[in-house]
Amino acid sequence: MSDTIFGKIIRREIPADIVYEDDDLIAFKDISPQAPVHVLFVPKATIATLNDLTPGHAELVGKLFLAAAKYAKAQGFADDGYRCVINCNRHGGQTVFQLHLHLLGGAPLHGFG
Ligand code: 5GP
User: Counting atoms of ligand 1 from 1, which one is nearest the CA of 14?
Assistant: First the structure.
């Protein structure tokens, strides 16, 4: 399992505001939210970056996006819209080297696109 801060959250070694968990994924609120809703969806398998994905991870990546969309629907902001982001390595702004999907929403989002 990941030897990162997110691995510690998965192992319950440090606290987090966990909003979803199953055998493959965990989701918790970002400690420094960039939108009214900012949740991180994290595979439990050790995968450092997008570059480390293999075809065998295709179902897992699908589950990651499906879990984020399901959460947005359950929270009632899916129709208004939201943003999903995966940062990769230095130029992408990645700071925690365990693959994670940022779900941002709850208000109009600016500064991208
Ligand atoms: P990255 O920059 O790697 O794409 O995103 C890492 C995210 O993890 C950042 O948005 C940062 O605020 C969040 N983060 C870093 N440490 C912690 C932590 O200990 N707990 C939680 N909940 N989020 C964290």
Answer: 19
Q: What is the pLDDT of residue 111?
A: 76
Mean of pLDDT values over 68-86: 98
Residue nearest to atom 1 of ligand 1 (CA): 94
CA distance 97 to 35: 22
φ, ψ of residue 72 to 5 degrees: the values are -60, -40
Q: Delineate the domains of the chain, giving CATH numbers in brackets.
A: 5-105 (3.30.428.10)
What CA–CA distance (Å, rounded) separates 75 from 27?
14
* Residue from 95, 97, 101 whose mutation best tests the ligand 1 pocket (most atoms within 8 A of CB): 95
Express each pLDDT in 4-48 by its tens digit: 999 999 999 999 999 999 999 999 999 999 999 999 999 999 999
Q: Whose CA is nearest to atom 17 of ligand 1?
A: 31
Catalytic site includes residue 102: no
